[in-house]
Amino acid sequence: MKKDKDLEIVEKFMKEIDLPDWFRGLSEFQRKAADSLFHCIRDDCEQATSHRVWDTLRRIGIEPLVGYSEIKFIFELCGGNDIAFLWFLMEMYYRSERFNCNGKKYSVNEQIIITVIAYLDTVTTLRELDKLLPKNLETKTKKKKRFSLRKRKSTTLLGIPYFQKQPRPHLYGKSLILNELDTVTNFSELGNYLDPHYTVSNEANRWFAKYELGKSERIAKGIINNEIDTIFEEERSQEHQKDHKLSLCEHHKTVQAIKETLANEQIVAKRKACEKYFDVKRHFKNLSYKRVIEDLNSEINKTAEDLENSKQQVGGGIDVPEKDQVPQEANDENLSLYNFGHDAAISSKCIYFKGPKTNKPYKFNYHKIFDYGVKNPIKDAVELALDANSSGNISMEHNRAIKKCCKAMWAQAVKNFNDKYKKDQKSDQVEIKEDKILFDQTPRHIDPRDNKLIQSILLKALNEIKKNKKFVLASLPDAHKYPTLREWVRKRYGMAYTREEKRKAFQRTKRVFQVLRNNTLRVRIPHVNDLSEKRIVSYGCREYLIKKTNYLRAIYEDNFKESLLNDARTYYVAIRPYHCTKGPPRNVFFSYLPPRKNDVHTFRPWHNWEYIHAQEEWNRRQRIKKAEVF
Question: pTM here?
Answer without folding.
Answer: 0.61
